[in-house]
Structures are given as C-alpha cells and as structure tokens.
Design a protein that fits this description.
It comes from Rhizobium meliloti. Keywords: Hydrolase, Metal-binding, Zinc. This protein has a domain of 260 residues: TIM Barrel. It contains 12 helices and 17 strands. An 8-stranded mixed sheet has the order 1-15-14-13-5-2-3-4. The protein has a 7-stranded parallel sheet with strand order 6-7-8-9-10-11-12. Strands 16-17 form a two-stranded antiparallel sheet. α3 links the parallel β8 and β9.
C-alpha cells in the first residue's frame, strides 16, 4: 500500500487501532473524523461521513497520541550539530520535538524566533545551563567555569519563554566540565528548584560520576543516556550503581534513553530490562553527527528497545504518555470530540534489518516500527523511517571518523 499522501482536513482516519490513550483507549478498530479546523468531530467504528471528506484508510494500522522525542538537537544554524526539525519531525512520525540544551540564555531568543515559532511540529526545549549552549558542540564546551553560567539571565529568559522552556539541561561529563566535576549539576538543580521545573542531566565519561548525579536529582528530573556503555558510566558494570539507579527510578527519577552517537548499548539495555529496569522514556539524541550512524530516527530507536526485550505497549508509552508528563502536555481525552488532533499512525512489521548501537555492536531487528502518518491538527503528513546514506570517512586533526 502507498503512504505517499498528504491531506489537510476535513480528514477521515479509517480503520485504525488505538494504543496508549490511557484507561479510555477503545478496543478494536475505529474511525476518527477531523474537521478542517484540526479538531476531532467524531470517533467510532465505521463512521458514515460525507464523500467530500478526504479519507485515509489505515488498513488496521496502530494509532497513538503523537510521538514525542524528548532529546533532539534542532537549533539549525545556531549550533554546528543541529538538524532542521523537518528532518526528524512529522515526516518521521514525530509530532513533538524537545530540544535538549542546544540553546542557552544568550541565544534562546534566536532559537524561539527561527525554529520554535515557524515549525509545524510542537517544539519545546530544555535550556542549557551554559550561556552559549551548543554553539560549537564539544569543540567549545559550554561549562568550562563559573563564568559560563549567568543565573540571573537564565531566570530572565525563562520568565520570557516559560511556554517554551520545560527544564534545565546540564551535560555532566569530563569532556564538557573538565575537573569541575559534579558542581554544574548542583548549580543546575538549584536553578531548577527556583523555577520549579525538572533538570535533564547528560551522563557520560566521568567525572562527574553517574552515581553522584543520581544522588543530586529528585523526582521528575531526567537522566539521559541511561543505558550508555561507557567505561565508568555503565549501570551494568557496577552493582551498587545498578541498585541506586533502580531505587531512584522507583522514587520518580526518569531514565531516558538518549541514544546519540555515543550513548546507547544493546548489552546494557538488554541486561537492565531483563532485570526489570525499563527506561522511562525513549529518545534519540538526534543531531547531524548521529542521524546517519547509528541512530537514524525515533522509530528505529523504538525498534532497538523492542529487540532487547521491552514490551511493545511499554515502548509506545515511552514515546507518548511518559515524555508528555515531562513537558506537561495534557494527555487526557486525546480522543474526545473537540480536542485538537495530534496522532501518529504506524505499523509494526516483520523485518530483517541490521542496526548498530553506539558501541558498534550489531543486532538484527526482526520487528520494526514503521510510521505512516503524523496527524497535526487538520494536516495528515506522510511519514516513513529514515534510510541512512552511505557513510564516508572524514579526516580530523585528531584522526578519522565515519559520517
């Protein structure tokens, strides 16, 4: 069946199976009629509607609340690694993108004007603790010293942009903070407490130690790259760290995948899930250096969690209900007449695709999520997985890498 179809309401979504709509999720296939104003007009099985309505037959595909990617980098033109929202948004089945700290207080106004406001996807953001954000990611670290942080300006920028900013982002690894260790996490937590918003912390090469970070965080805060395979930062190489992560997750600290180019391990994820420790949310950490290899897109990242043992329904919840709670996006009554339409239509299909984690380990994906449409208001956007281009060897001053 061809899915290269784009419509603007009124639209009838026919023969779709709801999932992840909470306790009120209907059983069995339904139809959804969306008015030209983008709001739900009618929901039910086999709706009889006017022939003037543009009909999209889901042929039994799944429909969920619109997928949310809780960790992307989309300050395109404002940082040297960011993608355009269109590269990882609606055309990949994702209706909400959450930028994880690309912009700091010094340049958030540009991110708002040139990215958030024009985008058809819903865009939210974690503001970087460092003033410059990820302007020249890693080449010019944003947290080298206390001079890189302006607490007063962060408070001012949040006040001016509270409808867009959902939290504070801190990258806590030695390639960013050097010998500063865990101190930036403490400063970020203080600001998050003042503003009553969560903090997302990147864990990586220690210091800071993953353990130290968890001990600072509280309920509602997020650890991204939770299943990384880096030496000194893997929850599976240290039983005390695993126990601490398990306890913190039980207390409401949210474990986020944040796949990225260096931060997801099949082995760590499979071992943790086998022991009952599931991630709270699944996100990609997509940027220009991770999209072509090894991440691709959110659907493929979801498929990777499926292959290491995460249940299908939990995977879908981890890109809908779970991240929605982080950004305070209401999820009740998403299938109610009068609500604005925000859905992802997708299939789960048999496959035989080799996928790679951030450590270079390969796993064969035998079942894969295939997005078909992103429904944003009255617009039905054809969606599909990203097909990576051939990798090329790039020379750097310190050696070579694949891009």
């Amino acid at each position: 069946m061809s899915y290269r179809y784009e419509a603007k309401g009124p639209v009838l979504l026919a023969n779709v199976k709801p999932i992840a709509f909470g306790a009120s999720t209907p059983n069995g296939p339904i139809d959804i009629l969306i008015n030209a104003d983008g709001r739900i007009a009618e929901v039910g099985p086999s709706l009889a509607v006017s022939t003037e309505v543009q009909r999209i037959d889901g042929n039994g595909a799944w429909i969920s609340p619109g997928w949310i990617d809780l960790h992307v980098h989309i300050w395109h033109g404002g940082t040297d690694i960011s993608l355009r929202p269109s590269e990882c948004g609606a055309e990949r089945g994702v209706t909400t993108l959450v930028d994880a700290g690309s912009a700091g207080e010094a340049n958030f106004h540009g991110f708002r004007e040139y990215i958030i406001e024009p985008s058809r996807e819903r865009i939210k953001a974690f503001i970087n603790l460092g003033s410059i954000g990820l302007v020249a990611c890693n080449r010019v670290p944003e947290l080298r010293s206390i001079q890189d942080i302006n607490l007063d300006r962060i408070l001012e920028v949040y006040a001016e942009n509270s409808e867009h900013i959902v939290g504070i982002k801190v990258r806590a690894s030695h390639v960013i903070t050097g010998s500063w260790g865990v101190t930036p996490v403490k400063l970020g937590k203080k600001i998050a407490k003042i503003l009553k918003i969560p903090m997302m912390v990147h864990v990586g090469e220690p210091p800071a130690l993953y353990d130290e970070v968890l001990e600072i965080l509280g309920p509602g805060d997020i650890v991204t790259h939770c299943f990384n395979g880096k030496a000194g930062s893997s929850i599976m190489e240290d039983e005390d760290l695993f126990d601490l992560a398990e306890r913190c997750a039980g207390d409401g600290i949210r474990l986020d995948i944040g796949h990225g180019g260096a931060s997801f391990s099949f082995k760590v994820a499979e071992a943790a899930i086998k022991r009952g420790l599931l991630p709270f949310s699944i996100s990609t950490d997509l940027h220009d250096h991770s999209m072509n290899f090894p991440v691709w897109d959110l659907a493929t990242t979801m498929s990777k969690l499926l292959v290491v043992g995460m249940p299908f329904d939990k995977v879908v919840e981890a890109v809908t209900q779970a991240p929605a709670s982080v950004i305070k996006l209401p999820m009740e009554n998403r299938l109610t007449v009068g609500e604005r339409a925000d859905f992802t239509v997708f299939d789960l299909v048999d496959a035989d695709i080799e996928a790679t984690d951030s450590n270079g380990d390969v796993s064969v994906l035998t079942r894969i999520f295939e997005p078909r449409y992103a429904i944003i208001g009255a617009e039905a956007v054809s969606a599909s997985r990203y097909i990576p281009r051939a990798r090329k060897l790039v020379r750097h001053s310190h050696g070579y890498s694949y891009r």
